[in-house]
């Protein structure tokens, strides 16, 4: 991740103590490499008691089921990114309803803040895109045993358990 050469002038960089930690600084023009987390967005797409998941085709968590998600483009708001990612990965159109959570994801080569949006599906027939292994609707009570990142404990299990409690009370 460390830049060995300046991104402005191409000169070599050197280690320098700047604002409390070691960073790379250009030996010629003084450019500093500030490393910041990336920004990503994930879709919590619910259809009654079912949730939309994709099987990841890339590391980290290759082969595991996860919420459809991806990095924001530089000029793209998070809510727009999630509608695009769901369309690309699952082939359906969704509209964002509300921000559900903001999750810190340190795994992988680009640590990220992931904005998780609750989305309403407007179309339903899944057409998994080339960047996922599969896409499918899962009943909240029949989630895959292995879920990527903190998708299970942080997002889906509380949803499942709250939902189960609600149904129990109605019986
Ligand atoms: Zn430079």
Could you characterize the architecture of this molecule?
The chain has 171 residues and is an alpha+beta fold. It folds into two domains: 35 residues, Ubiquitin Ligase Nedd4, Chain: W (Single Sheet); 112 residues, Nucleoside Triphosphate Pyrophosphohydrolase (Alpha-Beta Complex). It has two helices and nine strands, in the order ββββββαβββα. Strands 3, 4, 5, 6, 7, 8 and 9 form a seven-stranded mixed β-sheet that branches. A two-stranded antiparallel ribbon has the order 1-2. The longest helix has 20 residues. It is elongated. The termini are far apart. The mean pLDDT is 93. The structure holds zinc ion. Zinc ion (ZN) binds next to loops. The site of zinc ion has 8 residues, from loops.
Tell me, briefly, the overall form: elongated
Bound molecules: zinc ion
Number of domains: 2
Q: What is the CA–CA distance across the termini?
A: 55 Å
The CATH superfamily of the largest domain turns out to be Nucleoside Triphosphate Pyrophosphohydrolase
| Sheet of most strands | 7 strands, mixed
| Discrete helix count | 2
Q: What is the topological layout?
A:
Elements: E1 13-18, E2 21-26, E3 38-47, E4 50-56, E5 65-66, E6 69-71, H1 78-90, E7 94-105, E8 112-121, E9 132-139, H2 151-170
Bound molecules: zinc ion.
Question: What features would you highlight for this structure?
Answer:
two-stranded antiparallel sheet, 2 helices, binds zinc ion, 19% helix, Nucleoside Triphosphate Pyrophosphohydrolase, 171 residues, alpha+beta, Ubiquitin Ligase Nedd4, Chain: W, single chain, seven-stranded mixed β-sheet
């Amino acid at each position: 991740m460390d830049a060995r050469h300046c991104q402005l002038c191409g000169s070599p960089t050197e280690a320098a103590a700047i604002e409390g930690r070691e960073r790379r600084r250009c030996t010629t023009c003084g450019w500093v490499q500030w490393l910041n987390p990336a920004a990503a967005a994930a879709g919590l797409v619910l259809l009654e008691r079912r949730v939309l998941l994709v099987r990841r085709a890339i590391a980290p968590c290759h082969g595991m089921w996860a919420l459809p998600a991806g990095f924001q483009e530089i000029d793209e708001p998070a809510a727009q990114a999630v509608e695009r990612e769901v369309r690309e990965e699952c082939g359906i159109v969704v509209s964002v309803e509300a921000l559900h959570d903001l999750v810190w994801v340190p795994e992988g080569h680009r640590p990220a803040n992931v904005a998780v949006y609750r989305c309403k599906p407007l179309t339903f027939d899944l057409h998994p895109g080339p960047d996922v292994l599969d896409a499918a609707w899962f009943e909240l009570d029949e989630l895959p045993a292995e879920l990527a990142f903190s998708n299970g404990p942080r997002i889906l299990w509380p949803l499942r358990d709250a939902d189960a409690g609600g149904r129990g009370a109605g019986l």
